[in-house]
Design brief:
2 copies of one chain form a homodimer. The first copy, chain A, is mostly helical. Helices cover 62% and strands 3% of the residues of chain A. Chain A has 11 helices and 2 strands. Chain A has a two-stranded antiparallel sheet with strand order 1-2. The structure holds a DNA duplex.
Chain lengths: 256, 256
DNA sequence: GCGTAAGGAAGGATCGGCAGACCTTTTGGA
DNA sequence: TCCAAAAGGTCTGCCGATCCTTCCTTACGC
């Protein structure tokens, strides 16, 4: 619980004046970009499993409240990158590709900002752990327990492990009943996946991570919010340390 | 720490399937909207104090990476709503209006979504409290202590209290050293202000809230992350209960 | 083979945003 | 005193994103 094992320098309050964030660049996402992002993330996280059929275009563009031409731009982009396959005619549709294309290695920008991503993840996941401990229903907890049990059988297969891991973490967010938190969690998991998917994860590490899932869930069952926060902190600190070890060159190069 | 005092029903894991959030409407903010939002929030939160001079238009649009015409749209909008005043000529500029216009009462939509806002705030603030306890520097903690001391003298003047309260919470985010967290905090505080600013706050309530600030800060000083999470949870639960008491009509009307 | 349900493609209208030049009002200093 | 500099205010033309609408093409089932 001390900072001794933490290799980041202490932060001065003046280093990041809030005015810098007020006057930071405005980056407005277009509807096309956000659609590609949302669908792409959902596919890469396995929320939309391979083989799943998407709603028909005319239906989906109504749900998303965008024009069909805009939606099609996004679908075409995801089809070209190999994440979707479209078949025409009655009974056709747009399907999540099976198998999925291999994930691209993380870009330099993503690597440069990995600490920021980890910070954001820490904030979101710890907050959600506390809220889950406060109000998760019994059935929600049972569902999470089933996921933890399933993960025990996936320690040798990292892609499958990771998909179940995502289900667990998103499940925590769902158990709070707030759709905003689910969105925040999926976005964060998407950002983490870009960092995580390309590094080696020995089964022992995954096993101990799932032990942490178990302890977290036990804290949730006891409604012990402080313990939930502590377990989640420990859990995330694990991957943070792995990343810090594997990406040493980037740890201090991003400060101007 | 139990759920007995919590008036919200337990949440089922199927109630908010993650697919609903994937296919939720896409609302792309325009550069104009985001600029109005950012500057307006900063002004309303007091991050830009009345009388402050903004950077010149030609300079500001460079920082924000938008065209001057777009920036001007935003500035004109904020001037028309009375938040900014512009004077021409050499030595002129755009200034934060002094005094500020009275805050508008919260809209029906904002009131309908107040639980969601509180959930988001809980997630963000608890996560930030933990991160702050992990890594705040000594000078950052001293700055926060000064704010807490200053608040003791403002218990009779709610607007001043609230501004200092915001400085405290944003200061926690700044102490983590992550600009993303500062942004998340300011957005959340902006949303909360819409709810909070129009309800009565007796000095005793503010006093006990500042006691919670003090205990939180003590936990941060001890690097006790679990205690920081607990204190923050308690602190936020306070305002949540006040809102639950004052807005009873809206507590169950938003579920479809 | 015909209707229907799906993806695919093309037109024109609208709007937001950008770039740049230009105008008007002040005021500090040569 | 006067003028150049520094600020906000205005105008025009252009581009790209998005929208709506209509039509085409493919495939399945009756």
């Amino acid at each position: 619980m001390s900072t001794a094992h933490h290799d980041r320098p202490a932060v001065d309050v003046d280093a990041a004046s809030s005015l810098d964030t007020v006057f930071a660049p405005v980056h407005s996402q277009t509807a096309f970009e956000e659609t590609v992002d949302r669908l792409g993330t959902a596919i890469k996280l396995g929320l939309l499993a391979p083989g799943t059929r998407l709603p028909a275009e005319r239906e989906l563009c109504t749900k998303l409240e965008i024009a069909r031409s805009t939606l099609r731009q996004a679908l075409v982009a995801l089809a070209q990158s190999g994440h979707l396959r479209a078949t025409r005619g009655r009974g056709g549709g747009t399907f999540v590709a099976d198998p999925q294309p291999p994930a691209a290695p993380p870009s330099a920008e993503v690597l440069a900002g990995w600490r920021d991503v980890c910070d954001q993840r820490m904030m979101i996941e710890v907050g959600i752990a506390v809220l889950t401990a406060e109000r998760a229903s019994g059935t929600a907890i049972e569902g999470l327990e089933r996921i933890v049990l399933a993960i025990d059988g996936l320690l040798e297969d990292f892609p499958a492990y990771r998909r179940a891991d995502i289900r667990f973490h998103v499940g925590l967010a769902e158990a709070t009943g707030s759709s905003r938190l689910v969105t925040a969690m999926t976005e964060t998991q998407g950002a983490m996946s870009e960092l995580i998917s390309h590094i080696a994860h020995p089964p022992e590490v995954l096993d101990s991570a799932n032990d942490q899932h178990r302890r977290l869930l036990s804290a949730v069952r006891r409604r012990d919010e402080a313990a939930a926060a502590r377990e989640m902190t420990e859990h995330l600190r694990g991957t943070e340390h792995v990343l810090a070890g594997l990406l040493p060159h980037w740890s201090s190069a991003s400060q101007p």
